[in-house]
Amino acid sequence: MKIGLRILLGYFLIVGLAAWFLLNVFVAEVKPGVRATLEDTLVDTAELLAGVVAGDLKNGVPALANVEHYARRSIEVKIGGVLKRKLDFRIYITDARGIVVYDSANLALGQDYSRWNDVYLTLQGKYGARSTRSVEGDDRSTVMYVAAPVRDGERIIGALTVAKPIASVQAFVDRSQRKILQRGTLLLVLSLLIGLAVAWWLARALRQLMHYVSEVEAGRKAVPPSLGNNEIGTLARALHAMRTRLEGKEYAEQLMHTLAHELKSPIAAIQGSAELLSEDMPRAEFRHFLDNILSQNARQKQLIDKLLALVRVEQQQGLEAAEPVALDALLRQVAADAASQLRARALNVRLELPDTPLSVRGDALLLRQALGNLLDNAIGFAPAGSQIVLALAAEMAQAVVSVGDSGPGIPAYALDKVFDRFYSLPRPGGSKSTGLGLPFVREVAALHGGTVSVANAGEGGCRAVLRLPLPLVR
Questions:
Q1: Measured distance CA(405)–CA(380) in Å, rounded
Q2: Where are the alpha helices (DSSP H) in 218-326?
Q3: pLDDT in tens, 88-146
Q4: 3-174: what fold?
C-alpha cells in the first residue's frame, strides 16, 4: 500500500473515530438533557401548585377551577423552530391515603394511586417522580410525573402531581439530534477533504523525492525537486548536497586516474623525441622529431580541452537557461563550421531538412558542440570524396537528428563501448581521437531530456541519431 493512501486512511480513521465518539456523546446526551430540563420545570411547577392548593385540600375542597380550562385553550407558538399548538400539562391531587381527589383530565378521580412512585414517595416525605409509558413498548408515549407534597404546617396531607408527555418535547430532541448529525457529517466530510488534500500534497512531494532518488541511483542526471521550505524540501536539498559531495569526490578520483593514464603516452612520446633532439642528426630526422613533439603537445591540449568540456556537462544536472533553438538553422551552422575539414578530405554534406522548421528548448551552444562532435566523427571515418548525410525529422513528439556516413562502420566488439570515456577506434590513416566526443554528446542529450545512439547502417557505414523532445503544443 502506498504511503499516501496509508496516511489518508490513518488520518481518516482517527478523525472518523473522534467524530463518531463525539457525535454519539452529543446525540446520547441530548435526550437525557432535555428530559432533565423538563423534570426541573415540573418540580418547580408542582411545588408552586402544591403551595397554592394546600389550604383548599386542608378544608376538603381540592379545586383548581382555572386549571380545568387550561387544556382547552388553543395556542400557536413557535419555540426554537418547533411549532406548539396545544397545552399538555396534567395535574392530579391525592389525599394522605393516595386517593385521587382531583384530576384536571378527569381520568383517575377516586382511584388509589398510593402505589405509584410519585405519590408513594412524596407521601413518605421523599422526592417522588416516575416515567410511565401510555402504550406498552412505545418509548415516545412516555409521560413524566413529578409530585410535590401538600402540607399543613409540617404534616403532609396529600400530594400534587404534575404530568407532561415526553412527546411534547421530543420534537426539540429530534431537531437537536438532526442538527448535530448534519453538522457532524459536514465536519466529517470537510475533514476528509482536508485529509485528502494533505495526503495528496505529502504523497506528491514524496513521489517527487523518490523519483529524484531513483534517477540518482540509476546514475542519470536529475535536478532536486523544489518542495519549499518545509521538512521534505530541506530533506531534498540535504540529499542533493550529499549527492554532490559524494559524486564530486568519486568523480575527481576517477578523473585524475584516467587523465594520468591518457597523458602517459603523449608525455612519453614528447620526452623520447626531446632526448633524441639533443643528439646530432640529419635535418630531416630533426624536423620529424620536432613535428612529433608539436603534434603530441597538440594532442595533450585537445585532450585537456575536451575533458574540461566533458567535465562541465557531466557535473551539470540541468539546463540553467533553456531557450528555443531552431534545429534547421543549427544544422546549417554546424555544416558551415566543418567546411575546412570537409574540403580537406573532399567530402560534401547533404542536408535533409523538413518543410516545417523544428525547434527545441535547450542550450544552443551545447547542441552545436554535440552535433559538431557527431559530424567530426563522420568526417573522420568517411572515405575521401564521399557524402555525409545530415538529416532532421520529427517522430513521435521528438526531433530526430541523424548523421550518416559511408565508412567502414563499427566492429561488433566495439558497439557497446563507443560511449565509454577515452575509448576510440583508429581512423583511416591510423590516427585516433580523444575518445571524449561521444560521451560529451551523450551528456548533452541527457541534459536536454533526449538520447543518442550510434549503430551501423543497413546500407553500410555508420549512423548516429540524436533524439530531442519537442515542446508540447498548447
A1: 10
A2: 231-277, 283-315
A3: 788 899 999 999 988 888 888 899 999 999 999 999 999 999 988 878 877 778 889 99
A4: Beta-Lactamase (3.30.450)
Strand order from edge to edge, sheet including 387-395? 348-352, 387-395, 398-404, 462-469, 451-456
Other C-beta atoms within 10 Å of 163: how many?
A: 22
User: How far is 317 from 220, CA to CA, in rounded Å?
Assistant: 9
Nearest alpha carbon to residue 369 among 448, 463, 294: 448
Going by C-beta distance under 8 Å and a sequence separation of 6 or more, which residues neighbour residue 119? Answer: 94, 98, 113, 128, 147, 159, 161
Task: Measure the CA–CA gap between 364 and 98, rounded to whole angstroms.
Answer: 109
Distances (CA, A) of 363 to 155, 324, 325: 108, 8, 7
Q: Reply yes or no on domain 219-317 having CATH 1.10.287.130.
A: yes
DSSP conformation letters of 104-164: TTSSSTT-B-TTSHHHHHHHTTS-EEEEEESSTT-GGGEEEEEEEEEEETTEEEEEEEEEE
Q: Which of 407, 391, 409 is nearest to 399 (CA)?
A: 391
Domain boundaries, the chain: 3-174, 219-317, 318-474
The pLDDT of residue 89 = 81
State the pLDDT at residue 241: 64
Query: 81: buried, middle or exposed (CB in 10 Å: 19+, 13-18, 0-12)?
Result: exposed
Half-sphere exposure of 1 (CA within 13 A, CB side): 7
Helices 167-217, 231-277: inter-axial angle, 10-degree rounding: 0
Strand, helix or coil for residue 458:
coil
Q: How would DSSP label each residue in 12-48?
A: HHHHHHHHHHHHHHHHHHHHHHHHHHHHHHHHHHHHH
pLDDT of residue 4: 58
**Separation CA 369–CA 376 (nearest Å):** 10
pLDDT in tens, 10-39: 766 777 777 677 666 666 666 677 778 888
CATH architecture of 318-474: 2-Layer Sandwich (3.30)
Going by their DSSP bridges, the two strands 323-326 and 359-362 should be labelled as: antiparallel
Phi and psi torsions of 385, nearest 5°: 85, 0
Is there a contact between 269 and 290 (Cβ–Cβ < 8 Å)?
no
pLDDT for the residue numbered 369: 82
Using alpha carbons, select from 269, 259, 341, 261 the residue that is nearest to residue 298: 269
Which triple of cell numbers denotes residue 190? 470537510
CA neighbor of 314 nearest in space, from 467, 423, 419: 419
In angstroms, the CA 180 to CA 30 distance is 10
- Quickly tell me which residue has 395535574 as its cell: 91
